[in-house]
Design brief:
Blueprint (H helix, E strand, L loop, with lengths): L1 E8 L5 H15 L5 E8 L6 E8 L2 H8 L3 H10 L9 E4 L1
């Protein structure tokens, strides 16, 4: 099992719109091969910061299976414009 960790810095003032978009986007990721679960948590100290934790069966389920899919294009369309700076994504075993 692989844990994907992304710190998401949302543009201040756009947090509610981000959460609405994420509620749609989570339906995309949850249907991907190798997906197990995810959590989105909001930072207490910095209301515009979130952490996304996604459990994948193996690394390539995320890096290839998801990121190279047509579904990822919709994920990007829904979410990527909210971030500043763009998040760093790392994987843990």
């Amino acid at each position: 099992m692989i844990l994907e960790v992304a710190i998401l810095n949302v543009i201040p003032g756009q947090e509610d719109d981000f959460l609405k978009a994420f509620s749609k986007a989570q339906g995309i990721i949850s249907k991907m091969a190798g997906y197990h679960s995810h959590q989105l948590k909001r930072c207490i100290e910095h209301a515009s910061q979130f952490i996304l934790l996604v459990e994948w069966e193996k690394l390539t389920d995320h890096t290839i299976g998801f990121r190279e899919s047509k579904e990822y294009q919709e994920w990007k369309r829904l979410l990527h414009h909210f971030y500043n700076p763009f998040p760093t994504v790392e994987h843990y075993e």
